[in-house]
Design brief:
alpha/beta, 286 residues, 42% helix, two-stranded antiparallel ribbon
Amino acid sequence: MNLQHLRYFLAVMETGSVSRAADGLGITQPTLSLALKRLEAEFGTRLFTPHGRGIKPLPAARHLEERARLAVRALADARRDLAGLASGGLKVGVLPSLAAPWLPRLISCRTGGFEIVEAAPDELERQLHSGALDLALTVSPLREGVVRKVLLREPYALFVGPLHPFAGRRSVRLPELDGQPFVLRQSCERLGNGRRLLLAAGGRLKLVAKTTQEATAAALVTSDVGCTLAPWSWHCSGARRVGVDGLGLERAVILAWKKATVHAASIADIARKLLTLGPGGPNRAG
């Protein structure tokens, strides 16, 4: 069977017109009409009937449409997977706040190459489901259809500069954050929940800076411009980590991949190694 003919057929089903489908495909109408006739001969049944100045799909065409889409998608997935095997590389999506503490460990778990993409959780999940990524280092939860391996469960903490009044303390109470100069980490996946908890406790943050870059947030904190809330394993050299009593905010760091992938064995091996190499937080997953 000619795969191109199936693509032509799907284009006609999507546009409802031979002329519009031909224009979209960049081919002539006679070429497209001939392909449809050959497809009908292949299946031994008519797929379309004349209707006004165009054509109308018959029940056989509706029946074929779903199966044709599955076939085209399966072949595209196979082509992508085989290309990945040939290159030996894995396409890895990483949440920005996980890059510094986790990427060196992940790379050390495999001798083959990596292609790294940083993105927010929603975008990582979308690319994982579409097949654009082989695996994602992200946070829970995710939709069904992927394998999840929890690498670490960790609470959020307050990070302050070395000269901050809280720098020498092990912990502070949530209301004590009221009025504190705050650096907003816009890439933080749980910050909205943290701010709501703070407001519920009667505290308000004094926003002094906001950034999507983790390195910039770390520089602002260590320069005592302001403090920030971040996961326990947040990479910020020179900052002081202070527990927050009553915050009740945590995240689960996970490695996720699609169930049907030719890299499943390799990824599972990476997950096992990461469990022994991952950051030592207060709630390591087992």
